[in-house]
Amino acid sequence: MARSWRDAFDLGERPAEGVSGVEEGEGPAGPESGSGLFKRLRDSLSKSRQALQAELGASLFDQLDEEAWERIEEALILADVGARTTAEVVGRLEAEVEAGAVPRGDPVRERLVELLAEAADGDGARVDLSARPAVVMIAGVNGTGKTTTIGKLAWHLRRELGLSVIVAAADTYRAAAIEQLEQWAERAGAEIVRGSPGGDPGAVVFDAIAAAESRGVDVVVADTAGRLHTHSNLMAELAKVRRVAAKRLEGAPHESLIVIDATTGQNGLRQARAFAEAVDLTGVVLTKLDGTAKGGIALAIASELGLPVKLIGVGEGLDDLRPFDPREFATALLAE
Amino acid sequence: MFDQLSDRLQETLSGVRARGKLTEEDVDRAMREIRLALLEADVNFKVVKQFTSQVRERCLGAGVLDSLNPGQQVVKIVNEELAELMGGASRDLAFAGSGPTVILIAGLQGSGKTTACAKLAKLLAGQGKSAALVACDTQRPAAVDQLLTVGEQAGARVYEQGTKRDPTEIAEWALGQAKAAGDDVLIVDTAGRLHIDEELMAELAAIRKRTKPHDILLVLDSMTGQDAVNVAQAFAERVDFDGVLLTKLDGDARGGAALSVKAVTGKPILYASTGEKLDQLERFHPERMAGRILGMGDVMSLIEKAEEVSDQKQAEDLERKIRRQEFTLEDFLQQMRQVRRMGPLGNVLGLMPGMGRAVKQLRQADLDDRELDRLEAIILSMTPAERARPQLIDGSRRKRIARGSGTTVQAVNQLVKQFGQMRKLMAQLAKGKLPDPQQLGLG
Predict the structure, then answer these.
(1) Which of A33, A126, B37, B156 is the most exposed place for a label (fewest CB within 10 A)?
(2) What is the DSSP letter of B425?
(3) Using a CB-CB distance cutoff of 8 angstroms, which residues of chain B are in contact with residue A45?
(4) Which domains, from first to last, does chain A contain?
């Protein structure tokens, strides 16, 4: 079962308000159902399955010879899970099967899904919005979909959870990034605090938190410029943005999420590691899952760095952001 | 990890030297390491399989050359095969005989198309061609604004008609404008699209039909994983692109996707983007990518970059000095200053063979360009004699240098030690030998 928005967020002692104040701002008439989404996911995944000819037929789990194990590994590697995490998961499964703990056939597949889901799950970690205002910082390398994610997140926070949102346009570097966020904020019905192009991103976040406090706004979502994790000066700048937030409001940012593009390969692990060092990440948003890429690198990130996926992006529409469901994700990885 | 592929191969094959020939078992052990390394570099699984079986054939029974140890021998074969697969000589853009040359830019969302358009315009301007841009991304919010801004920064004219019109019509209109204005090149920026998005892929095919581009470039993020082959195949089928522009190579991704795309579609990589600044776009050299994928550095690019910033005479002097191990700290200082003119430290060091590990250490030590200021300060605090003969530097001189440069004795020590290692490495390279990491203490 796909998790609901309410399950995916920790709103603390905030009263469960009704959906209010969403009449402004455009957007789809109603939220798409979870099953519809995952049908789309699976549809697209089945295309990649065909392309890669790595489908794991039922007979594979009956025979379980050396070739079968190799095929299972192959499927995971083709999903960008990475050789190391793949070897760990498959090794564990193989040991359990050999010990007779798992009977051959379907139970093996079931157990594989379970193991993958466990590896991807950070104990059902929720997005912590219990503080008031809660500050969410969004970071990542260039082109992963940070600004788009923020637009969708702001819309969902208002629509699904009835929260008021300020977005902070702290990507002062990329040309037209502020204009892009402005358009999203308008669609989402969120307020925006902006600086000037080339300005200090820390100051924008500072102002946004101040504005949220004085106006009693629930959540601040901060956009930051995309940066390659190998540029130490840019990573230091990001760390500074975080420090400025913490100085303005104790405990902020309450969530620091890295946006990882599902098409990313093994470099995603290095990205997550570097960003975690710089800004103490609390989780991952996995975007672009509507293509044929399966985002297996998120599994490696969760299992090696303990960073759970919290949200997934499945398109460019306002409602194309979802709470992460480890089981659905694991099932999709095997492209059934 | 990949950085240690060379080391691991040497370890795996350490017993082989005595026999002088690689046996099937040796080769299989080596192939396992190579397979893992290539997967780590995001080379597509299928391509890896095919590749390792090819390399295996060549390695079997291959004699171990006198100058190389068995590990190096295998690395050499892998390197050659990779270079072969990456595609021999690099191709140039096709230019129109008359009227504007049309270059269509396509790719997934977030691969870096808009920035690439401006960089390409700037690169072409440097070759004396006036390039204009047209904004056909009507999907992403503010994409037109972004192209206007980067176009202005690149000194390129930007044609746009907002986001309400059909991109196909905008492209056709812009082509008319470019003809009238006498632009040499028209670069068409398009919306990012998923290769499975039927509607948008059809739109791209329509733009192609109307504008008849001379070159179609697929923009590919060098961090892309296994899915790169699916993307490239789909774009090849729908718009039959001519080549790839590889972006974000200034990161630490090995870029195995480039290899996969070449292997699967046969399309060459034409350009590589190596930084956020608009002049950081280069012609791609396929034979050099092999070294990067293998973590073996890129001597050719380094030499070429050095040539760009130094004159011929200087380069010859330097080469002689390097061969004879007469390279001094004074030369090092000059080089460092030239190197800094080439770009940020990480970019340049990454190009040097055997420096893969060093770059990582530098990163761990949080060494960035500011650190170079410190190195400069240390060398500037030395006497000319000390710069020429670092072995003169004893305890009291070290203290003086540390004080003079505002650093520590340890920092001075480290610089002198690393300089010694580097001098050996460079001499070896100049003599055409692969560096032996163990000997250098880097391994």
Answers:
(1) A33
(2) H
(3) none
(4) 5-14+125-333 (3.40.50.300), 47-120 (1.20.120)
Judged by CB atoms closer than 8 Å, whether chains meet at A175 and B45 is answered as no
Each residue's pLDDT tens digit, A15-71: 555 444 444 444 444 444 444 555 555 555 444 444 433 456 667 788 888 888 988
Q: Which residue has tokens 């990882």?
A: A260
Partner-chain contact B39 A293, CB within 8 Å:
no
Query: pTM higher than 0.90 for the full model?
Result: no
Query: Which parts of B129-242 are beta strand (E)?
Result: 131-136, 158-159, 185-190, 215-221
Is residue B390 pLDDT above 90, yes or no?
no
User: Which position has the higher pLDDT, B91 or B187?
Assistant: B187
Q: Answer whether A270 touches B (CB < 8 Å).
A: yes
ipTM of the complex: 0.84
Residue ranges, CATH 3.40.50.300, chain B: 101-293
Compare CB distances from B110 to A83, A145, A175 and report the shortest one's residue: A145
Residue B64, Cα to own-chain centre: how many angstroms?
30
Highest mean pLDDT among A36-40, A176-180, B361-365: A176-180
Give, in words, the CATH class of B2-86: mainly alpha
Task: Tell me the CATH architecture of domain B101-293.
Answer: 3-Layer(aba) Sandwich (3.40)
Is residue A133 reached through a cis peptide bond, with omega within 30 degrees of 0 on the bond before it?
yes
Long-range Cβ contacts of A45-51 (<8 Å, 24+ apart): A45/A292, A45/A294, A45/A332, A45/A335, A46/A335, A47/A292, A47/B196, A48/A292, A48/A293, A48/A294, A48/A335, A48/B227, A48/B230, A49/A335, A51/A292, A51/B230, A51/B233
Show the CA angle centred on residue A257, arms to residues A81 and A290, nearest 5°: 50
Topology of domain B322-440 in CATH is 434 Repressor (Amino-terminal Domain) (1.10.260)
Cβ of A26 under 8 Å from any chain B Cβ?
no
